[in-house]
């Protein structure tokens, strides 16, 4: 076995141990768990939509425990202010000096619960945190710990009293994952586990090991054909007529930004890495397309009137622009 193969076998074994430890407590939700791991490895952020009670918070908290990382949960409410998120300067009457108190964003895994219930100024405070991984308080910059992941949740069944997320912020989430109810069999196991003594979760990896895995993940090979496929998909949401989809133009107000192309490539690398490979296959990328694109497409009134949603348009888009079946020769450029 070569050094590279031994390294990937070691990585796959570590990932398997992490997932095994998480699954001591979490039942089902395999795709959700996989997407969380992809986001961590690709250093992206995750937007999760699902009704209450589906173990979204528990999943992230358990994962943080297996990675020896810090975990904070912020319940977003209409009375929240930016200082509650990033921290503030506090005056000490005894010393007559100001001191900086850092907010709950200074952690490794941050869960922003019901993010759309906070006003726009609080949501905007997350922009620098998510993009720059730093916070500025009174002109002083504070770096966040690494690795850092924001997982934000939205409740799809209650929209009264909520504030729609700005497009600039939504675009900073690498993926939007939809979490569904468990099957009856899974729910039975959930009830059995919750009503007995909870298992003890052990730390499997350190944050330093995770940082090394993130660096290793970025070395994964992506064929030029797959990169071109990602770019074609994303560009087709902005200029559908150019890619043979003129009927899409009235259905989309805005398409996806170049961040979507980057997220597809980085996410496919991470998914391949999770599966023990240092190269990306077409299915690694196609599996992530709905999660990467669904929150970046702004549908027109016509599309909404026809009862369409982003996922339906993505299916049609992927049918029209198929993934490459054969790798391109080095230096060869696929036709537009």
From TrEMBL:
Keyword Membrane: no
Alphabetized InterPro entries for the sequence: ATPase_AAA-3 (IPR011703), CbbQ/NirQ/NorQ/GpvN (IPR050764), ChlI/MoxR_AAA_lid (IPR041628), P-loop_NTPase (IPR027417)
Annotated ATPase AAA-3 domain residues: 45-175
Pfam family, any one: AAA_3
Signal peptide: none
Keyword Nucleotide-binding: yes
Entry keywords, A to Z: ATP-binding, Nucleotide-binding
Domain ChlI/MoxR AAA lid: 251-314
Domain of life: Bacteria
CDD domains xrefs: AAA (cd00009)
GO MF annotation terms: ATP binding; ATP hydrolysis activity
Family: Belongs to the MoxR family.
PANTHER family from the UniProt entry: MAGNESIUM-CHELATASE SUBUNIT CHLD, MOXR FAMILY PROTEIN
Protein name per the record: ATPase
Biological source species: Candidatus Dactylopiibacterium carminicum
């Amino acid at each position: 076995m070569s050094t590279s193969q031994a390294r990937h076998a070691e990585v796959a074994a570590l990932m398997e141990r992490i997932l095994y430890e998480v699954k001591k407590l979490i039942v089902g939700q395999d795709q959700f768990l996989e997407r969380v791991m992809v986001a961590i490895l690709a250093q992206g952020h995750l937007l999760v939509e699902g009704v209450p009670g589906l173990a979204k918070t528990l999943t992230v908290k358990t994962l943080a425990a297996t990675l020896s990382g810090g975990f904070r949960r912020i319940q977003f409410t209409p009375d929240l202010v930016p200082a509650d998120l990033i921290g503030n300067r506090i005056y000490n009457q005894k010393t007559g000096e100001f001191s900086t108190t850092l907010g709950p964003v200074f952690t490794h895994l941050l869960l922003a619960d019901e993010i759309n219930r906070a006003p726009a100024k609080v949501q905007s405070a997350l922009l620098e945190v998510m993009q720059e991984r730093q916070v500025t308080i009174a002109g002083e910059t504070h770096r966040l710990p690494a690795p850092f992941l924001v997982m934000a949740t939205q409740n799809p069944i209650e929209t009264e009293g909520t504030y729609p997320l700005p497009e600039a912020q939504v675009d900073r989430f690498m993926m939007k994952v939809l979490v569904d109810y468990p099957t009856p069999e899974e729910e039975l196991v959930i009830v059995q586990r919750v009503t007995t003594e909870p298992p003890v979760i052990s730390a499997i990896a350190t944050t330093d090991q995770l940082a090394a895995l993130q660096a290793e993940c970025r070395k994964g090979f992506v064929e030029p054909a797959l990169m071109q496929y990602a770019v074609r998909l994303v560009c087709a949401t902005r200029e559908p007529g150019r890619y043979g989809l003129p009927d899409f133009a009235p259905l989309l107000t805005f398409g996806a930004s170049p961040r979507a192309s980057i997220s597809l490539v980085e996410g496919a690398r991470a998914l391949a890495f999770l599966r023990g490979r240092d190269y990306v296959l077409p299915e690694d990328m196609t599996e992530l397309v709905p999660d990467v694109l669904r929150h970046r497409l702004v549908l027109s009134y016509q599309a909404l009137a026809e009862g369409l949603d982003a996922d339906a348009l993505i299916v049609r888009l992927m049918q029209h622009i198929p993934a490459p079946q054969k790798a391109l020769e080095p230096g060869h450029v696929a036709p537009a």
